[in-house]
Amino acid sequence: LATGVVGRRKKAPKDKEYEFFYFVQQWPGSVCDAKRACCYPKTGRPVSDFGIHGLWPTYNDGSYPSSCDSTLSFDVTLVEDLKGRLEEGWPTLACPSGDGLKFWSHEWSKHGTCSKSVFNEREYFQDALDLKNKINLLKVLTDAGIEPNDEFYELQDVQEAIKKGLGYYPKLQCNEDMEGNSQIYQVYLCVDKLGKDLIECPIPPRANCPSRVQFPKFYELAATRMCWAHRASVSQKA
Ligand code: 5GP
Ligand code: 5GP
Q: From 53, 57, 59, 209, which residue has the greatest number of CB atoms within 10 Å?
């Protein structure tokens, strides 16, 4: 099983107001070296940094509303001036390669519309980008000696480094690379209902990661593929 449960995730009624946000960032190295692999966005290879996955309205018990208003479909003209920032900070890694619109549209429709009491579409994306700017996760980790260099780290050290750097504990979600190593895949931080400040997560962290986790390099895709081909040929010979 590549990804696992982080917290409780029942869907809940859409008419109840959400209570906080999960701000979820993904590590591109772990998206791309997993079995499902990845595709670079049409706009080019993302930088080697965490990218936004989403800003998700959630209830304090861990359940969450979704797809709250089908009349508010994603309108790209409303975020035209944010496009450059979205491409950089919220890149799509799904296949086939896209320009990001599908990913952003999905996130807005599924999650964003559930925070319409606080944000319109433009404000929703602007807020997520501003959060990303404020929260330099990669710097916090590298300052603590936790670098994307294929090394393994104690999960607790990773969590403590984020707590020390940002003031709040994250939830970590792991997935597996092709060799079955558990690696840092997504980092969940909790943000207050107005989308402004980090808060302590209402639900105690329940990471699906083992006690030691890899922090993989974000390899060039060509290198990743060659690496797999090499491993496959080695295991065939063995
Ligand atoms: P996964 O099963 O990959 O962890 O999550 C699948 C999708 O369910 C996520 O991309 C997200 O859209 C939604 N989701 C998962 N957990 C939560 C949560 O705790 N809160 C909210 N609001 N959405 C979640
Ligand atoms: P969620 O898990 O938020 O419900 O949905 C994520 C959706 O966005 C999936 O349909 C997935 O294919 C698409 N998607 C596009 N680009 C990305 C990406 O870079 N990361 C993830 N996790 N999903 C992406």
A: 57
Query: Is the CB of residue 110 below 6 angstroms from any atom belonging to ligand 2?
Result: yes
The pTM (predicted TM-score) of the whole model is: 0.90
Residue 5, pLDDT score: 43
Interval between CA 106 and ligand 2 midpoint (Å)? 8
Q: Per residue in 204-219, pLDDT tens?
A: 767 799 999 999 999 8
Contact predicate 112/75, CB 8 Å: no
Phi-psi region for residue 45, left (φ > 0), alpha (ψ -120 to 50) or beta? beta
Query: What are the b/e assignments for 35-62, b being 16+ CB within 10 Å?
Result: eeebebbebeebeebbbbbbbbbbbeeb
- For 233, the token pair is 């040929």
For the packed helices 121-134 and 101-110, what is the interaxial angle rounded to 10 degrees? 110
Residue 23 token pair: 């701000």
- How far CA 187 is from CA of 79, 117, 125, 158, 194, in Å, comes to 25, 26, 18, 11, 20
- What atom of ligand 1 comes closest to residue 21's alpha carbon? 22
What are the structure tokens assigned to 31, written together? 């998206």
Contact 111, 54 (CB under 8 A): yes
User: Catalytic: 230?
Assistant: no
Task: List C-alpha distances in Å: 126 to 38, 74, 90, 113, 234.
Answer: 26, 14, 11, 14, 48
Q: What was the pLDDT predicted at 3? A: 41
Topology of 20-215 in CATH? Ribonuclease Rh; Chain A (3.90.730)
Q: Per-residue b/e over 117-144, b at no fewer than 16 CB within 10 Å?
A: ebbebebbbbbbbebbeebebbebbeeb
